[in-house]
Write a structure and sequence with these properties.
Radius of gyration of chain A: 21 Å
Number of strands of chain A: 14
Distance between the termini of chain A: 53 Å
Largest sheet of chain A: 8 strands, antiparallel
Oligomer: homotrimer
CATH architecture of the largest domain in chain A: 3-Layer(aba) Sandwich
Number of domains of chain A: 2
Shape of chain A: elongated
CATH class of the largest domain in chain A: Alpha Beta
Structural class of chain A: alpha+beta
CATH superfamily of the largest domain in chain A: S-adenosyl-l-methionine hydroxide adenosyltransferase, N-terminal
Helix content of chain A: 10-25%
């Protein structure tokens, strides 16, 4: 990997904006490689939500240059027997716990090499029981950003955990999906991809209904929606979402992650 | 511009702290120029509030070194016909939609050169309809940070949109302003500048009143105010603001952005 | 200090995620040294909470490389007579107001050199009365990151202010501590250190009780706790904390910073 060592380390965590966790972790990376650039992706996944972290990783890592180190610390099992791992795919390096945060790296196309991190000489000492983001993943990411190879941190490994992904269901003339996330605009993002939607619905009349509202066509952009009216479109991650132009769909429609969303063929 | 290419790219967006938008956009900048430094100014303007974004830009960009690329993505019209533009002023470069976010760059003193971004070979392909921050503005900012000139992205352009700025009004012996923003301390920042205040009020007795409180002089620093008592002073952006030393004026006074504030001469 | 000038500047402030304060301050650092890396530790200490800022600093700075400049701007007395200072300890440099934010730098082991910042030629002009983060601490941090020595900014100084730290009390067979902070997971972090706990409790039976819950042993990791049940453990800063595995102790237990927590010997 010729471009390794350019030194970009991205962070996805559930540490939140408060307190010392993010800052301590960045320090432990920079202490190993003061010249790397540490990039905040988000520190506000839902606490312990490995599926959400895996989605955010999927929707960010391909935009980074080859050789980037992506660190994901959503780690409710810290200190237990869950393995710390390094994955390598398409010239990207991934570091974090083996608990499902890499679901979409593992399930996507392309070959993934995997390693368990076992060589304790790279960890901070003493290794805490509660904060491997700082004591283990951060220094390992620092060394990787200096150009060390993944296989220098432990033996090859496999059988990595993948989070259960709720898939949309076809029930007669209905496509039943689920709201996965809401973003800061209140857009409600479902698990219905462009491809799945296309198979069943494309070219036919459809309807999405809720309490007091009805959507009967897709839009292409947010600004095409009538201000204040619910609309549906495919967002930038390629998933069907509910939105309100210049409004907040989550607040107005009273829907939230976990709720079902049904597209009915007419 | 001799200092171009030092590679600082600042970001002002309304993407919020959740999800993948900020991280994907940073990746698309760094993929073009892995050596630039991406600097978060804020990702929490009010959603779609172009006037607030333009204020934050006004109050930050002059503090950055010449050659800095300032990217503003508060972009409710993404995918519509609003133009993507590059502005150049005082050795600073600005990138974003032509929707008012550059109001104060355009209305301030000094000459501004402007260009429409039309050369699609610099965009990510396919260009999404909903996320030009990632697919268009980010790579263009990356190339600008490498030292490319604004005129390499499209033709000269002008007649850029400026947001309507509410001005304070003189009504008899009253100066009637408006609260524009509140900050994280609960300070309430108005549209009354030092100059406008000076013309009418300086050297005379004045009064600002609300429900159960009255201010009859200005302070110079927050710490001069009696703890718990409303006070007025000119903040760091040169605008009159209401504050409470060791308190939260927004919460205590029950005022919010959009509300009027009257300074009465006695 | 041979490693000075590698150019990492960390920021701890109470500016919050809104508005221009963080962005303007970063600009004023980068204008002096465009090549330094500015690292966000947190901008969300409780407003004006110098004790919390000093804790976050204590729990982050040792993880950074020698030569790092740590800037802390929690500064309710800005514009008053409180001194702006630079401290130097263990090859780390600290910049901020003399108001208690450096309590744990000063109270910890090791020698600390101190200086008052008096040389106005390094400040932005005009110096505002309300925002020394931008106008004073930022440019001074920028110059320090270029390799300037602390004594170039003013004379040696001492007698720095230290915040009052609430200590746990032994009352008969009880150890009475206090909840200092809660983190983004809802963990409730107390002022009881491993050492203090060890002196009184280690090896004996103990109990921590609240409304409808009781803890009678310590755990080592979060994941050892029964989901939904209150647990106690020593967190990554070496302090006793209450937690709920896969839950939120703050919300569930109805406790908050400032509340007492009693460990009873049986």
């Amino acid at each position: 990997m010729k471009r390794r060592g350019q030194g970009i380390v991205t962070l996805i965590t559930d540490f939140g904006p408060l307190g010392e966790y993010v800052g301590a972790m960045k320090g432990a990376i920079l202490k190993v490689n003061p010249r790397c650039q540490v990039v905040d992706v988000t520190h506000q996944t839902e606490p312990q939500d490995v599926l959400q972290a895996s989605f955010i990783l999927k929707n960010t890592y391909p935009y980074y240059p080859a050789g980037t180190i992506h660190v994901v610390v959503v780690d409710p099992g810290v200190g237990s027997s869950r393995r710390p791992i390094i994955l390598e795919k398409e010239e990207h390096i991934f570091v974090g716990p083996d608990n499902g945060v890499f679901t979409f790296v593992l399930s996507g196309k392309g070959k993934t090499e995997g390693y368990e991190i076992t060589r304790r000489e790279f960890f901070l000492a003493p290794l805490s029981d509660t904060f491997h983001g700082r004591d283990l993943f951060a220094p390992v990411a620092g060394y990787l950003s200096l150009g060390m190879e993944p296989d220098q941190f432990g033996p090859p490994a496999g059988d990595f955990l993948q989070a259960q992904l709720p898939r949309p269901q076809v029930r007669g003339k209905k496509l039943v999906g689920r709201i996965l996330f809401s973003d800061s605009f209140g857009n409600l993002i479902t698990n219905i991809s462009r491809k799945e939607y296309g198979w069943l619905v494309e070219g036919r009349s459809m309807q999405i209904k809720g309490k007091g509202w009805r959507i009967d066509r897709l839009h292409r952009t947010y600004s095409q929606g009538k201000p204040g009216q619910p609309m549906a479109l495919f967002g930038s991650a390629g998933l069907l979402e509910l939105s309100i132009n210049r409004g907040n769909a989550k607040r107005t429609l009273g829907l939230k992650p976990g709720d079902l969303l049904t597209v009915s063929l007419l």
